[in-house]
């Protein structure tokens, strides 16, 4: 089995008395485009900053590509990171950004970078401060992929973009993934974007991993049950209740199970990715599901 690209065990980061991340345990497998989703304040940005080596944990451990994040310059070169505000230097031109990338990254692919800029129709002499939000995001993505990383970490890179710019950014991302066969962790609160790009999902709520697994398998094992009102503890033991809602006469559950649902009282329907994410983020969600710590391929 391939070693995970990211492994966290009881990981935490504290600022004074405030915990930005606490007790996070997670394995992210190699060879996937992984969507990291959760409500504001769940710890997504903190987790990704820890993975990129920009922060140090105050508790627990984290390994990226088998080592402590940013342990050495060589290890740092194996990881690409695009932060939430897609940082660029306003006073530098696109060409100067690419030259800087070449100086800082030993695995830099100058031909790839130049080709991406040309395909995007960007003027190398244009200063970053004069680019649109979508163009700056594309420049930041170019800087990330041209260093030829084994793992690319993206922290909500399209959050501030309009729908067209988001679509173009994600299309460029998937082209880069296909060309380079790198692993990607993409944080986003836009589930539709995750549906287009991700084959693996992590839901993080209040620092805890609620569910982790391949999207296809998760959708196949989650179901919505609707029927006469019933308490959750009357469901079979193999039907893990993710969320529950009730009226005077009717109950609706989202459950996770790998077995058949045989009770004829239930109307059984599937869930889409947004339904699944919202169920785990719901305030009515039951105890967290056990994370998928081993992914067989």
Automatic annotation (TrEMBL):
rRNA-binding is among the record's keywords: no
Family annotation (InterPro entries): AAA+_ATPase, ABC_transporter-like_ATP-bd, ABC_Transporter_VariousFunc, P-loop_NTPase
Residue ranges that the Swiss-Prot or TrEMBL entry lists as coiled coil: none
Pfam families attached to this UniProt entry: ABC_tran (PF00005)
The keyword Cell division appears for this protein: no
GO molecular function terms noted in the UniProt entry: ATP binding; ATP hydrolysis activity
CDD domains for this protein: ABC_DR_subfamily_A
Residue stretches making up the ABC transporter domain: 6-231
UniProt keyword terms in alphabetical order: ATP-binding, Nucleotide-binding, Transport
The protein's name in its UniProt record: ABC-2 type transport system ATP-binding protein
């Amino acid at each position: 089995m391939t070693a995970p690209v990211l492994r966290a065990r009881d990981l935490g980061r504290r600022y004074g008395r405030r915990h930005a991340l606490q007790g996070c345990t997670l394995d992210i497998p190699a060879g996937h485009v992984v969507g990291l989703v959760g409500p504001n304040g769940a710890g997504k940005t903190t987790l990704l900053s820890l993975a990129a080596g920009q922060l140090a944990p105050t508790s627990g451990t984290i390994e990226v590509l088998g080592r402590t994040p940013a342990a050495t310059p060589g290890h740092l070169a194996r990881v690409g990171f695009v932060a939430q505000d897609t940082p660029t230097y306003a006073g530098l031109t696109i060409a100067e950004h690419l030259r800087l990338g070449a100086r800082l990254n030993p695995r830099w692919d100058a031909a790839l970078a130049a080709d991406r800029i040309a395909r995007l129709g960007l003027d190398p002499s244009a200063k970053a401060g004069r680019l649109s939000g979508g163009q700056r995001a594309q420049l930041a993505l170019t800087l990330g992929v041209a260093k030829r990383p084994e793992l690319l970490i993206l922290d909500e890179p399209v959050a501030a973009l309009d729908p067209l710019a988001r679509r173009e950014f994600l299309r460029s991302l998937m082209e880069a993934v296909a060309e380079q066969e790198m692993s990607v962790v993409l944080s986003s609160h836009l589930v539709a974007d995750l549906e287009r790009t991700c084959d693996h999902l992590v839901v993080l709520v209040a620092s805890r991993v609620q569910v982790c697994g391949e999207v296809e398998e998760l959708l196949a094992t989650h179901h919505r049950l609707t029927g006469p009102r019933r308490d959750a503890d009357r469901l079979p033991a193999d039907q893990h209740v993710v969320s529950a809602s009730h009226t005077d006469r009717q109950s609706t559950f989202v459950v996770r199970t790998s077995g058949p649902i045989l009770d004829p009282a239930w109307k059984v329907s599937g869930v889409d990715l947004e339904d699944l994410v919202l169920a785990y983020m719901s305030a009515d969600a039951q105890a967290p599901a056990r994370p998928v710590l081993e992914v067989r391929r």
